[in-house]
């Protein structure tokens, strides 16, 4: 094999491993963020507070 072919194979293997790792990281990451966002929204904003808030008309 020529050096350029060897370089190409090594580079493609490295990029393949990085791609697979990124897919695994993306698969695991959103579940924790979604749970944190839901708990934050539920604990800070309630529908009663939104309904009872006074409205101000802007002309």
3D structure, described in words:
The protein is mainly α and 59 residues long. The chain has a domain at 24-59. 81% of the residues lie in helices and 0% in strands. The protein has 2 helices and no strands. The chain is rod-shaped and about 75 Å long. The termini are far apart. The relative contact order is 0.06.
Average pLDDT, to the nearest integer? Answer: 76
Low-pLDDT residue intervals, each spanning 5 or more residues: none
Proportion in helices: over 70%
Secondary structure class reads mainly alpha
Count of distinct strands: 0
Order of helices and strands: HH
Distance between the termini: 77 Å
List the helices and strands and how they pair.
Layout: H1 3-44, H2 47-52
Keywords:
single chain, 59 residues, mainly alpha, 0% strand, rod-shaped, membrane, transmembrane, transmembrane helix
Write a short abstract of this structure.
This protein is mainly alpha-helical and 59 residues long. It has helices at 3-44, 47-52.
């Amino acid at each position: 094999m020529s050096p350029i072919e060897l370089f190409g194979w090594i580079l493609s293997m490295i990029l393949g491993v990085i791609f697979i790792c990124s897919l695994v990281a993306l698969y695991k990451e959103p579940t924790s963020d979604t749970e944190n966002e839901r708990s934050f929204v539920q604990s800070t904003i309630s529908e009663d507070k939104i309904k009872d808030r006074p409205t101000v008309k802007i002309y």
